[in-house]
Design brief:
Blueprint lengths: L5 E3 L4 E3 L12 E5 L5 H10 L3 E5 L3 H10 L7 E3 L1 H9 L9 E4 L8 H9 L3 E3 H10 L8 E6 L4 H14 L4 E5 L5 H5 L7 E5 L2 H5 L8 E4 L7 H4 L2 H8 L7 E5 L3 H9 L4 E5 L8 E5 L2 E5 L10 E5 L8 H16 L4 H9 L9 E6 L2 E5 L6 H8 L5 E5 L9 H7 L3 E6 L4 H11 L5 E3 L13 H16 L5 E4 L12 H15 L3
Parallel strand pairs: 3-4, 3-6, 4-5, 6-7, 8-10, 8-11, 9-10, 11-12, 12-13, 13-14, 18-22, 19-20, 19-22, 20-21
Antiparallel strand pairs: 1-2, 14-15, 15-16, 17-18
Helix pairs in contact: 1-5, 3-4, 6-12, 6-13, 17-18
Length: 504
């Protein structure tokens, strides 16, 4: 396999260059980050005969990683200062030959800049897994089905896994959900089909990856603080469209443009309207595939009524169409699609109804971690009391506020970037009542119970604003890590707060 080199923004990090994965025996490999992807990377490196060294600023994280490994696998653990010494050559013959980075590490992180200065190549865990699988170091090569997009990745990947399993494939959801991709290569029983949810971070660090089928659902502003520009963000997403079949949302301007430019021999669009040749869409309320490429009506294959899809609504239907297009491209039959999607249930914190109190519905869409995702729930119908705020990650919230201003009964803002949302509301919805709540991300941070206390106050304020027939909607349009562990923690806090409003 030919090595490639990619320059990561201004950092100059050598991404994708480096040794042949079949010749890592005896190499010292620095694994940056002891989190979710760390144990799998260490296991793969150990199986390849390399010497993994894990670097993390948290000694307890390294301890947890060691506990997650089998008893016969050990690894050295170092702090970040020691890792820098291994990279800059001051350790003499002990310097490392390769870096495997956790996907969340930005290209301009000091250690990755040090790797660039030292000429040490950098791979992500997806790149490591792809190279090892392509070299058939763990048995015959797997089929890679990659799902990316700003929103809908997890639902689509879960739907795709369900269809593949219904078809009799030995499939597993992995990547950002389920197992890390490195763990899948070593899983027993063997996994033959990877339904991989891949983030823009993971794709940035995996330039060699060429999935058999890849889908870009949509592309909207997100993670611009990490990528540096919208173009770089879109370019990372486009890497899944470089294999045999490329699938993308035809109704999304950027995704459609990426599909038109994709090098894949076969391109399939998915849309909410009637499909054209080589598209999947909706005909008379029925999900329909036309991926035989013909122009005649008999090329249409009915899959299932749109009303049978969960989650209900346009976003859920598009996710189902995308999963169907990918699965049909690798041998699934229409009856497999229908059976799997009829039995599919959506994951938690995705426009999930929580309760109805005094005629007011309470909905948990904590997974709406960017403006594009929040838009779907805000425009689902009816008048909303919106609970929003958190980390905007460089995204522009102004267009969303302007579009949804007419459905807002009131707004409660929490989190670090709440002021930016308040400014947009003042410009586009000056008559809408807005309550801003200070929280633990401010200078007056309280103790560990403070996030729940803030959410309790937010839901109580929203309940006071709402009247019968309204929806109190948690759709933050922002990431959660300023106050909460993750979006799940934020959603659970909302559910607890709603229970308190109900008197439970």
């Amino acid at each position: 396999m030919t090595d490639t080199t990619h320059t990561a923004g201004t950092a100059g990090t050598a991404v994708g260059a480096g040794p042949d994965v079949r010749e890592l025996t005896g190499s010292r490999v620095l694994v940056l980050g002891a989190g979710v992807s760390g144990p799998g990377a260490v296991r793969i490196l150990h199986a390849l005969g390399a010497e993994p060294i894990v670097a993390d600023s948290r000694p307890e994280a390294i301890s947890r990683l060691r506990e997650a490994l089998p008893d016969d696998i050990g690894c050295a653990g170092v702090d970040l200062d020691r890792a820098a010494e291994l990279l800059d050559g001051s350790d003499g013959p002990g310097r490392v030959d390769l870096v495997i980075t956790s996907p969340g590490w930005r290209p301009d992180s000091p250690l990755l800049l040090a790797a660039a200065d030292a000429g040490v190549p950098v791979w992500g865990d997806v790149e490591l897994a792809w190279r090892a699988d392509a070299a058939e170091l763990f048995g015959p090569r797997r089929t890679w089905l990659a799902v990316t997009g700003t929103n809908g990745k997890t639902t689509t990947t879960s739907m795709l896994e369900a269809i593949c399993l219904e078809s009799g494939m030995a499939a597993r959801a992995c990547g950002n959900i389920g197992l890390p991709v490195t763990d899948v290569l070593l899983a027993e029983p063997r996994v033959d089909v990877l339904a991989a949810e891949l983030s823009s971070f993971q794709l940035h660090w995996a330039p060699s990856c060429r999935p058999d089928v890849g889908v870009v659902l949509n592309v909207a502003e997100d993670h611009l603080d990490w990528h540096g520009s919208m173009q770089a963000y879109a370019d990372a997403k486009a890497r899944v469209l470089t294999g045999r079949v490329a699938v993308a949302g035809a109704d999304d301007e950027i995704a459609a443009r990426l599909l038109a430019a994709a090098p894949a021999p076969t391109a399939i669009g998915v849309r909410l309207g009637a499909p054209g040749p080589w598209e999947c869409g909706v005909v008379d309320g029925v999900l329909t595939a036309r991926i035989g490429g013909g122009d005649e009506d008999d090329d249409e294959v009915a899959l299932l009524p749109a009303g049978d899809v969960r989650p209900a609504g346009p976003a859920g239907v598009l996710d189902a169409l995308a999963a169907s297009a990918v699965a049909l491209s690798v041998g699934a039959r229409p009856e497999h699609v229908a059976a799997a999607l009829r039995g599919f249930t959506v994951g938690a914190h995705r426009a999930e109804p929580v309760d109805t109190i005094d005629g007011v519905a309470y909905v948990d869409d904590s997974k709406a971690t960017n403006p594009h995702a929040a838009r779907t729930s805000l425009l689902a119908g009816g008048t909303m009391v919106w609970i929003a705020g958190g980390l905007l990650k460089g995204a522009d919230v102004e267009p969303l506020v302007a579009e949804v201003s007419g459905v807002l009964r009131g707004v409660v803002l929490i989190g670090r970037d709440r002021g930016r949302i308040a400014e947009a509301l003042a410009r586009h919805a000056p008559a809408v009542p807005v309550v801003e709540l200070a929280s633990g991300d401010d200078d007056d941070a309280a103790g560990p119970d403070e996030p729940q206390q803030t959410m309790d106050r937010a839901v109580a304020e929203a309940a006071r604003m709402a009247t019968g027939g309204d929806t109190v909607l948690l759709a933050p349009a922002a990431a959660s890590m300023d106050m909460f562990t993750d979006y799940g923690h934020r959603g659970r806090s909302f559910v607890l707060a709603v229970g308190r409003v109900a008197g439970r």
